[in-house]
Write a structure and sequence with these properties.
Length: 243
């Protein structure tokens, strides 16, 4: 079975999972921690190179303050509880997104976790917190504009490769497989640049119910796709034609 090198997941549906049980939204977020662990374990087990998880978007800051601080508390707890295990499994953990609005103690834990796992050569795990695809692109543009203004870069030298190297996922292959749980079929300002040729898979499963068998369905979907990147089927060397 063809395995994706890089999987990107929008973990959506925690609030609806809780509402269906008459519980507060936070109960859904708490229940959403277990499927994060399962997804990481499955990707490690299968030998996936990179996994990028959307945990909190730049737009999620506009949610009610108690929900936001509840989520931030969960991130701190999860880091405290799971970092040893991730490190033991050889996971290299990084965070992407705008950290400046995060609590100082969370920023410190994130930096500590990144430093501790930096030399690991197992799964490359990116957690997007305070992340927005447009923010990412604008930050890259600012960095490149500064390089041009200082004379370090000429505008003619700017290529897609150089632009990509200024984005948060620099150095990683683009995601091959995108998964969104919770039934919505939208990108919600996730990795706008990097998803250009990603295979998109949507599941009605709410994130707290996501498990290894649902992830297997996503992998099977991916394996069944014929990726053409603009070419014709014969050009790709595929024998079967597409429907
Ligand atoms: C995803 O679940 C978690 C975050 C966005 C932080 P939601 O909280 O969006 O759950 P729904 O979509 O309201 O069910
Ligand atoms: C996307 O989910 C962001 C995360 C899962 C972190 P949302 O629930 O915020 O997306 P919308 O608002 O339904 O588009
Ligand atoms: Mg949602």
């Amino acid at each position: 079975m063809t395995l994706p090198r890089h999987v990107a997941i929008i973990m959506d549906g925690n609030g609806r999972w809780a509402a269906a049980r008459g519980l507060p939204r936070h109960a859904g977020h708490r229940q959403g921690v277990a499927p994060v662990r399962t997804s990481v374990e499955e990707c490690v087990r299968r030998g996936v190179e990179a996994l990028t998880l959307f945990a909190f978007s730049s737009e999620n800051w506009r949610r009610p303050e108690p929900e936001v601080s509840g989520l931030m508390g969960l991130f701190v707890d999860a880091l405290d509880r799971d970092l040893d295990e991730l490190h033991a499994r050889g996971v290299r953990l990084r965070f992407i997104g705008d950290r400046r609005s995060l609590a100082v103690r969370l920023q410190a834990r994130m930096a500590g976790a990144e430093a501790r796992t930096a030399a690991n050569d197992g799964l490359k795990l990116q957690v997007a917190v305070g992340y927005g695809g447009r923010w990412d692109i604008v930050e890259a543009a600012k960095r490149l504009a500064r390089a041009c203004a200082s004379g370090a870069l000429r505008p003619e030298e700017l290529t897609e490769e150089r632009f990509a190297a200024s984005l948060e996922l620099a150095g990683l292959p683009d995601p091959d497989l995108f998964v969104r749980t919770g039934g919505e079929r939208r990108i919600s300002n996730f990795l706008l640049w990097n998803l250009a040729y990603t295979e998109l898979w949507f599941s009605d499963c709410l994130w707290p119910d996501f498990d290894a068998s649902e992830l297997t369905r996503a992998f099977e979907f991916f394996a069944s796709r014929q990726r053409r990147f603009g070419l014709t089927t014969p050009q790709t060397g595929e024998t079967r034609d597409h429907a």
